[in-house]
Design brief:
This protein is mostly helical. About 75% of the residues lie in helices and about 0% in strands. It is globular, with a radius of gyration of 18 Å. It comes from Paenibacillus terreus. This is DUF1405 domain-containing protein. Keywords: Membrane, Transmembrane, Transmembrane helix.
């Protein structure tokens, strides 16, 4: 199997392959929410309940991408569903790139300060890297528009604000407990960079399609 075929429209839009990706992402999403179980319970008991939506960052990103795959499998016919698709796909790509990179970076940052990287950490690095890659690969097939990416950027910045204002950010490795301001700054910068990267990939893919 050639590298070209692995990245081809023929494979990536094959319905069997899309269903495989859908189930893998759905299972990963469920596993992600289970992973956050302790922090969700902790937040529910000690914080205003409305903050609970800002806690499970990565699984919510994966959920958006899973729904985006359903839109590829079953393109909506009505205008209302099509508009919803734009915003879901915007959230899917921006948050998947952002949290995919963020989780891996935090694991390595903790290790650089004396932490260890065990098998579970490597699994998290692999799964989150895939999140970021698949979002950048599939954005060329999504119907997302600039408005959807802008909405996703604003939502993700709001998520950052809630995380580091109220302290509901994902729990960090012990080695980074004294680096929260630096983590916050990195997180916001990564949100901006992820949105910019998604917009650039979308623009380039649309330009290439228009030129063919």
């Amino acid at each position: 199997m050639s590298i070209t075929f692995l990245w081809s429209r023929e494979l990536l839009l094959n319905r069997y392959f899309l269903w495989l990706l859908f189930w893998c992402n759905l299972l990963g999403t469920v596993g992600g929410y289970v992973w956050y179980d302790d922090q969700l319970a902790y937040t529910w008991e000690r914080y205003p309940h409305w903050l609970i939506v800002f806690v499970p960052d990565s699984p919510t990103a994966s959920l958006f991408f899973t729904i985006a795959l359903l839109f590829l499998l079953f393109p909506p016919a009505s205008k209302g569903w099509t508009v919803l698709r734009y915003f879901v796909e915007g959230l899917a790509v921006v948050t998947s790139v952002k949290y995919g990179i963020w989780a891996s970076a935090i694991i390595f940052a903790g290790a650089s300060q004396g932490g260890t990287i065990g098998p579970l950490d490597w699994m998290l690095v692999a799964s989150h890297t895939i999140m970021a890659v698949e979002a950048l690969v599939y954005i060329r097939f999504f119907a997302v528009r600039s408005a959807g990416l802008t909405f996703a950027l604003l939502w993700t910045l709001l998520n950052d604000l809630m995380d580091y204002t109220y302290g509901v950010n994902p729990w960090l490795p012990r080695e980074l407990f004294d680096d929260v301001p630096a983590v916050r700054n990195f997180t916001v910068a990564l949100t901006l960079a992820s949105a910019a990267a998604c917009w650039l990939v979308m623009a380039l893919s649309r330009r290439r399609t228009a030129g063919n």
